[in-house]
UniProtKB/TrEMBL annotation:
Superkingdom, taxonomy of origin: Bacteria
Protein name per UniProt: Tail sheath protein
Organism classification: Bacteria, Pseudomonadati, Pseudomonadota, Betaproteobacteria, Burkholderiales
Domain Tail sheath protein C-terminal per the UniProt entry, residue ranges: 57-163
InterPro entries: Tail_sheath_C, Tail_sheath_structural
Coiled-coil stretches: none
Family affiliation: Belongs to the myoviridae tail sheath protein family.
Organism: Mycetohabitans endofungorum
Length: 171
């Protein structure tokens, strides 16, 4: 999911109507027009050339692999947090949630999805009173986790904050 869908050959005889030059490709990139053009180079099938999203308001979501990684992480971590829904909103539950998320992100890092030579350069997970939640939020049944991921460069984190509404279970 974190590999760019770029430089992939198109099969089946599909050919672009017009060839795209390096200059035209560069012009589009300079104008912040994120197009993943189909390019033909000497001796190759047509290639998908680029891995940009349509997001132009932020560098965070500029590239398809970063967006896909975060979509998957949000979905998977959301499931892990949902599993804690009927647990007390207390330190033991927070530690279980933190450990589950940490194990998941460690696997993503080991598989090459996050950058850094050590886990703490690739990701972090924070949860707890005074760290991600106030006492009022805990009392209101909100479990809040803050996650930082480094998908492009070590220790350059994109931050996610995820909230799970907890059932009314006494702590």
């Amino acid at each position: 999911m974190w590999k760019a869908p770029a430089n992939i050959g198109l099969k089946g005889g599909v050919q672009p109507k017009e060839r795209v030059s390096d200059t035209l490709q560069g012009d589009y990139n300079k104008q912040d027009k994120p197009l993943n053009l189909i390019r033909v180079f000497q001796g190759t099938d047509p290639l998908i050339w680029g891995a940009r999203t349509l997001a132009t308001d932020t560098d965070r979501w500029r590239y398809v692999p970063v967006r896909r990684l975060f979509n998957a992480v949000e979905k998977d971590i959301g499931r892990a947090m949902h599993a804690a829904m009927f647990e007390p909103n207390s330190q033991p539950t927070w530690e279980k949630v933190r450990a589950a998320i940490d194990n998941y992100l460690h696997a993503v890092w080991r598989q090459g999805g996050l950058q850094g030579s050590k886990p703490d350069e690739a990701y972090f997970v924070q949860i707890g009173l005074g760290l991600t939640m106030t006492q009022d939020e805990i009392d209101d049944g909100r479990l809040i986790v803050k996650i930082g991921l480094a998908p492009v460069r070590p220790a350059e984190f994109i931050i996610l904050q995820m909230t799970q509404d907890m059932a009314s279970v006494p702590a």
